[in-house]
């Protein structure tokens, strides 16, 4: 059986994430050996070349079988936390005492660079808090980063920090050849069900290379023909480049019938489940295939000019609550500003260690981690629609994650309130000025700034429909009038005329004394004042 | 004696940083009591109001005595690490066995929100690595953030994490009234000279308020008149609002003569130092007052069209090395990409725990922390000119710190290499597309993209001269030709004509068959090809 994300069985696959470029060639090689059609021998040969399926950093939209886009450091471990959250949440909602249809692990490999990035500490603190027992992280402790030995900038005790974060920590001292140790560590990690596990695997970078092992020169550049030869000799590997010996092929091909048997087993289990739990099965299928329920958009509220003026952050909350009722994969939360961003789903409790079936996610003050976790949730299953929230100005804290949403086609909804100077007393550090312009410049982002209730509802309709583009909604703290002429349909067009002001100049001027012309065209102080008064 | 940053004595003052809005009113009240002219009783009364010196988050450019702008969470602790780095560096360079003229502490208060932010883990890992023994951080452990009890999102062991980061950790269990415990903790912290200290102070938020203490409702909003009354009664405080009783005034005013004595003592010590170590004293004074050495700009390299083509990242390294020779306060480094960003100063070693006199700072893969640490360095003394480097695309990781540079007038130089698709194999996650446009939209930023050697030198001249505006230099990985007509002076103008292409259309068209017009105006395929060939 070959990988096919449209086949419901694959929804329950274990997820493997290689954080940053970490072992990118390894990832491609494993996909190839495991029988993924997406990576052929030719693809391996065109590593890092134009048009290849094997770019320098794995991209989920380029290479089937690559789960997430993890190029920038720290994103991968954060995505993995999102994937593990999604599993825990869906398992809690859909598993039945007689049928565990959601039950998979999330594995991630991360290196020293990822460990140094603040985002990794944010998300690992959350993973410990949430008790994500099916998250297993391998920390490739090789002591080398691009600038050399980690002694120059990274001498903390990672073990102790992770124990502080509430993780189970295992140390594999010989990561180069200690296969039994590694197997035992995985077994131990699986036995610990209430905590995520960090397996610190001490390794030698460039293991086997006689002259370049344990040095930064193998970090981001090729060994070179001469050193490759020396390494082959050293490791006793006599085969041609890219040749996979028959016994290796045979070893790996065992997985194909094994996988087929597992698939048949799961399909039978799911067929049984579908009979007993019709509604849940239909919901779960829609989460697995991304099909939105018929008529979902009718749940969105509409307004008339007579509806009371309101802040778009409040109108947004009405939309969020309306959507959560009709979209089974809708979940999210705020970075410690839920009561300011107005993002609580009133009919649900908090997603927590012991209540993972709930849909309000409490991210704490961790904007960057929040965005990247949402990328992981969105890419777990196409029907999961995560939203996350903070003040609009703090998109600066999470911009790298937002860019990955755009690049990796993760339809995260960013609910960004307290737009502009309307924020008030918190002052200039909290007031977004340049942020709209900066996001309009970012490819594949929907930057939406609704003017009232209908436009807020329209913005949500656009955001939910665009499952391969993230949306940013800039929302106000202050009250805004409900305008005549706004509509959901109008917002969907991208631009539309709310009020016809076409009596501004639309001809090529006229010949007369200047004062007279200004007056004739209505450009007088009195006219400007009158127009301004009309608006206020 | 009153605070006067132009008086050299104040260069050696202890630095106090209140991270985020943390205790902002406390900070203003302390400045007022300590006799800072900048905060009068009237200023306290106009807290969070238009035009006041007491905005909702303290801003260094609004209120003399406020060291740094720390509104967004996590920035303050990062700034404090920069301030402590600056002290350790300057002490190592300028202190003599017979005269310790640089010798001060950096204190910072941070709360649960700052602890959750990834940036704080980044900088605290570095502070531990660098052994910043004169950095003392008070962690206000009050268990309340905006969304409520920290139980909902923050249950890690902060103590254990900080021990892992190489800090000395002390727990003050009664932070509300345990003054002796706090005094003892500070004494203990000062005795530990090879590690920074975290004093975890367990407190009750809103202590004294009978109905609102220990709840999120005192986090960001006023108690209200009724509860203020109840709190006054509860604490036995009978005085009018804003009234400072005589005995309190007297207690605080003790510091004025004490400070004068300390100042006289330091001035005498410095006068002695100046006699013995003339050159060092002159350098240190220029660091304290920000005066650039006469003729420093002559050190910048210049090029002719015959000079070899080169990547602007390499040309930048020539400038960095030239400037480090003539600017005593010039120091910086990269986030683990020194050999790619080309930022090493060849005549200096690494700033490390045991070699703090050196000027190459190794930030590790911690872009956000790096930017905020540089803000702290820049705001320690006007003559310190920090630069920091990563790939241009990773400004996304540090954008919040860059914005604070711009807002708080910290003239940090951001050396951002691997501009645009010219980066190559690392792929789209590493290629900046929208970044120039996004920074052009940010107020008070100098966004510079030099085209060759002369323009790179010009960009550095502009960056060094602008001590109250941060500069971002976007630099290439690929070789660029040295162009005729470029110059340092040209760059200083902001825009200038390198090559006169004014034979493009500069009239209102003409009447003739269209093909003929295109030909006459030189817009033919042949002409375009010829022009393109000339450029390539």
TrEMBL record, chains A, B:
Residues 310-482 form the Transketolase-like pyrimidine-binding domain. Signal peptide: none annotated. Substrate binds at residues 219, 313, 340, 418, 426, 430, 477. Its cofactor is thiamine diphosphate; Co(2+); Mg(2+). GO terms for biological process: pentose-phosphate shunt. InterPro entries: THDP-binding, Transketo_C/PFOR_II, Transketolase-like_Pyr-bd, Transketolase_bac-like, Transketolase_BS, Transketolase_fam, Transketolase_N. It catalyses: D-sedoheptulose 7-phosphate + D-glyceraldehyde 3-phosphate = aldehydo-D-ribose 5-phosphate + D-xylulose 5-phosphate. SMART domains: Transket_pyr. GO terms for cellular component: cytosol. Pfam families: Transket_pyr, Transketolase_N. Binds 1 thiamine pyrophosphate per subunit. During the reaction, the substrate forms a covalent intermediate with the cofactor. One of its GO terms (molecular function) is metal ion binding. SUPFAM superfamilies: Thiamin diphosphate-binding fold (THDP-binding), TK C-terminal domain-like. Its EC number is 2.2.1.1. Keywords: Magnesium, Metal-binding, Thiamine pyrophosphate, Transferase. It is an enzyme of class 2 (transferase). Belongs to the transketolase family. This is transketolase. The lineage of its organism: Eukaryota, Viridiplantae, Streptophyta, Embryophyta, Tracheophyta.
């Amino acid at each position: 059986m070959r990988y096919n994300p449209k086949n419901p069985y694959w929804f329950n696959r274990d997820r493997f994430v290689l954080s940053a470029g970490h072992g990118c060639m390894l990832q491609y090689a494993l996909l190839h050996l495991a029988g993924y059609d997406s990576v052929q021998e030719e693809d391996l040969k065109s590593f890092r070349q134009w048009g290849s399926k094997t770019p320098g950093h794995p991209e989920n939209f380029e290479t089937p079988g690559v789960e997430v886009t993890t190029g920038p450091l720290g994103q991968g471990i954060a995505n993995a936390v999102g994937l593990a959250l999604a599993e825990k949440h869906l398992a809690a909602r859909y598993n039945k005492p007689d049928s565990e249809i959601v039950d998979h692990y999330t594995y991630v490999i991360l290196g020293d660079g990822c460990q140094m990035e603040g985002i990794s500490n944010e998300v690992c603190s959350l993973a410990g808090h949430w008790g994500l027992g099916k998250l297993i992280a391998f920390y490739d402790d090789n002591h080398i980063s691009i600038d050399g030995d980690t002694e120059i900038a990274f001498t903390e005790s990672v073990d102790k920090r992770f124990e502080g974060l509430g993780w189970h920590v295992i140390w594999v001292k010989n990561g180069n050849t200690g296969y039994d140790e590694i197997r035992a560590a995985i077994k131990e990690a699986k036995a610990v069900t209430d905590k995520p596990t960090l397996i610190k695997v001490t390794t030698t970078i460039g293991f086997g290379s006689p002259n370049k092992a344990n040095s930064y020169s193998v970090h981001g550049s090729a060994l070179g023909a001469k050193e490759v030869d020396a390494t082959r000799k050293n490791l006793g590997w006599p085969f041609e480049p890219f040749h996979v010996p028959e016994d290796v092929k045979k070893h790996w091909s065992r997985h194909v019938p094994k996988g087929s048997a597992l698939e048949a087993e799961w399909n039978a289990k799911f067929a049984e489940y579908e009979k007993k739990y019709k509604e849940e099965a239909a919901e779960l299928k829609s989460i697995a295939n991304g099909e939105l329920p018929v008529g979902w958009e009718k749940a969105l509220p509409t307004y008339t000019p007579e509806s009371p003026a309101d802040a778009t952050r409040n109108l947004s909350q009405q939309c969020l609550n309306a959507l959560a009722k009709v979209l089974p994969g809708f979940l999210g939360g705020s970075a410690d500003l839920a009561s300011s961003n107005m993002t609580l789903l009133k009919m649900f409790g908090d997603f927590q260690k012991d209540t993972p079936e709930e849909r309000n996610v409490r991210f704490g003050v961790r904007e960057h981690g929040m965005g990247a976790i949402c990328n992981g949730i969105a890419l777990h299953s196409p029907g999961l629609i995560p939203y996350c929230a903070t003040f609009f100005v703090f998109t600066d804290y999470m911009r790298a994650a937002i860019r990955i949403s755009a690049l990796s086609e993760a339809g995260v909804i960013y609910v960004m309130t307290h737009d502009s100077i309307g924020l008030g007393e918190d002052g200039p550090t909290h007031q977004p000025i340049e942020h709209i312009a900066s996001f309009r410049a970012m490819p594949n982002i929907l930057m939406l700034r609704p003017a009232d209730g209908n436009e807020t509802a329209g913005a949500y309709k656009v955001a939910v429909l665009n499952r391969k583009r993230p949306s940013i909604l800039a929302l106000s703290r202050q009250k805004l009038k409900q305008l005549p002429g706004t509509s959901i349909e109008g917002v969907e067009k991208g631009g539309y005329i709310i009020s016809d002001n076409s009596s501004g100049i639309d001809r090529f001027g006229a010949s007369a004394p200047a004062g007279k012309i200004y007056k004739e065209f209505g450009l007088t102080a009195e006219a400007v004042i009158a127009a301004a008064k009309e608006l206020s």
